[in-house]
């Protein structure tokens, strides 16, 4: 990666079309945030930008989808290819980003979905068709803020179907030998997250952040926080074919106690807050929102995915609350 302030790409957000979806129910929209309904977007919207790891220019269109559809990606550059459901058991790689693929065709994949998934989770979007002409979502500014902006531009439509929530019934914990762990615990209501990180780079160091997941708190505290990398890692990443689209416009780059981005940080705890945002995105691959508490220490995409697999490995860990009949099929419990 060139450490340069030159703009390597032009991300552009195209105006939404005038298409109106049948699922657009204005009568329900007035109280959308207070009512337990499913949501999609009101009209299609497109963005264009470079992929963080591939370095390729990607065009992605979000479109409304009917109730109980879920979040589904389509690789339109691979005509006739199978769709890819945004589900934890379709995750095939978690090295630096979360990559999903069709279970029958691993070459039909989409990488770096976590920031888009975080914005969808925070906005309560449960049904969406995503057309993309390459193997990775555009990274845009390296945070979830521009995906959130896309959703705002398209508008949120409430659908005439109740939403489903996954209630965690007992503590589920996964860990790595280095002390990193991730866990979900029962909670009385809502979904709250607490996460801590510990980096040797003094510019990052030890940071902790906790918050309940609401759209307002997401926007105020974590949605704008960018992905980050240590400068010494960049060459090795690029030799592995990763980070080829990275620049100071879509990632924080640190070296010892310095932040190399000319504009500095957007928040002193931007690093841990980005990690919390990543978890919001990764955990939405459960297929529904949670009634639970999440705790993570030095956790990342790999532990987040192992945690979901551990949850759904036993039906004693969880139950569906709400639209159970419709949503049982959306969760592929492995036990
Ligand atoms: Zn991230």
Concise account of the structure shown:
The protein has 335 residues and is α+β, with helices and mostly antiparallel strands.
List the helices and strands and how they pair.
Layout: E1 12-14, H1 26-29, E2 37-41, E3 45-50, E4 57-64, E5 71-75, E6 84-85, E7 91-93, E8 99-102, E9 105-110, H2 114-123, E10 128-132, H3 145-154, E11 156-162, E12 164-168, E13 172-175, E14 181-185, E15 191-198, E16 206-212, H4 215-222, E17 228-230, H5 231-239, E18 252-255, E19 258-259, H6 270-283, E20 289-297, H7 301-312, E21 318-322, H8 324-327
Parallel strand pairs: 5-10, 12-20, 15-20, 17-18
Antiparallel strand pairs: 1-3, 2-11, 3-4, 4-10, 5-6, 7-8, 8-9, 12-21, 13-14, 14-20, 15-16, 18-19
Bound molecules: zinc ion.
